[in-house]
Every structure is written in C-alpha cells, then in structure tokens.
Write a structure and sequence with these properties.
Cytochrome C oxidase subunit II; about 170 residues; about 20% helix; copper; NosZ/Cyto_c_oxidase_sub2; membrane; metal-binding
Amino acid sequence: MHIDKLERNWAGVALGIAGVFVSAILGSALLHGIHAPSNVETIDSAKLHLSKEFAEDKLGASRNPDGSVTVRMVAGRYGFFPKTLTVPAETPITFRWVSLDVIHGVHMPMTNMSTMIVPGYVAQVKTELHHTGDYPLLCNEYCGMGHAHMWSNIKVVGKAEWDALAKQGGEQHG
C-alpha cells in the first residue's frame, strides 16, 4: 500500500498536534493536582435519612482528629443540603455528597472542585480552599425543571474564626 508523501506529512502534523494537546492536559492536571474522583462507595439513596453518616443531624462540616475537615451534603431536587455552610481556609477538606433522586453535578467556581453525584454512590472530592469569602455551589448536571434554582453557599473563613464558631455551636457548621 502506497501513502503519498504529502498525506504522510499531514498525518504527522495532525498526530503531533494531538500529542501536544494530550501533553498539555496531562501536564496541567499534574501541575495543579487535578485528578478524577476515585472513591467507589455505595449507599441506599432511599434510606439516607436512616444512615449513620448522611442523617439530617450529621450534615455539614465537622473537624477530624487530624485537623482536616469533612463536609457531608445531600443533593436532591432542587437543592443542596445544608443550604449554607462554613469551612476553614488553608485546611484539607473532604467533601462527601449523596443524591436523593437523580444524577446531579456539583461545581464550585474559582476552585478545582467539580464532580457528579450519582444515586446509589457516595461522591468524594478532596481539596483545600486558600481564599476566604463566599463561594456558590452550583448544580452543573440538568436534573429537572427546578435545576436553575439548585445552589448552595460555602463561606470560607480563617482558621481562627472557624475555631471560634466551633466553640460557640459545637463541631457542626451547617
């Protein structure tokens, strides 16, 4: 089989461009610490209110013995629960989400946090938020007629302020 020299050159250029793009994506992901969620944990979405971890009184942010924070949230038509949440800056945070009903997506603009929340599974993302302020938490997966109203607010405060809030209201910051 004969391949014309011009066709071979253009095929090489196309493969070279594809290689540059793949290298840029991989390099950027490694440089910024971006990786695909790898937590595979199942849960019965119909019994979330009975679960030890995702019962209503367990939702929100809580401090772990090692100083990190775990945030537990539930996504359901048409909101994230709890609706507002306070977390500390400069602290490793593990976000854990479950869905009550359909597939939802969660995205926090200006951060590296975005994942899908699939019914029957626990979605988990680890991150560290460096800047204080208010961050919207948006659903980025169409989930029905009220999708546009599905949001929550994450308030990032300094560690000292978060510690003071913890002393006032216990460890849960919902």
